[in-house]
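Hi, here's the filled form for the chain we discussed.

Project: internal
Contact: R.S.
Residues: 128
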Amino acid sequence: MVSPICFFFVSYVKSKFKYDDSLDVFGVHCIGGITGALMTGILANPALGGQGIADYASKPGTLVVAPYDWVAQLTTQAEAVGITLLWSGLGAAILYVIIDKLWGFRVSEEVEREGLDIAEHGERAYHY
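And the returned structure, exactly as it came back:
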């Protein structure tokens, strides 16, 4: 089942901002992952039927369920999301710069006109 938030990003936001994401990776995985991580902080609340969070620090080796503070957990989840976005964004930016300097991202104009299928793969993708 597709999350309504992911569906919104894939259907409306992508067409509005016209970003290139042919496989909808951003709309499905990034937005869906962020939504799931944040909702975990809310839905783990025992008052909503969740499991709560075990307190392993006070009694190691035993499962003692601590009182659940959903605001603190949601804050922790949001921090984790922010760190993940920062880490992967910086890593992607660094790799982008390295690859651009070493090989470059664009092919020549000749290759673009001829078509990447023939120039890069030696075969046609479409037979017409």
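Let me know if anything looks off before we file it.
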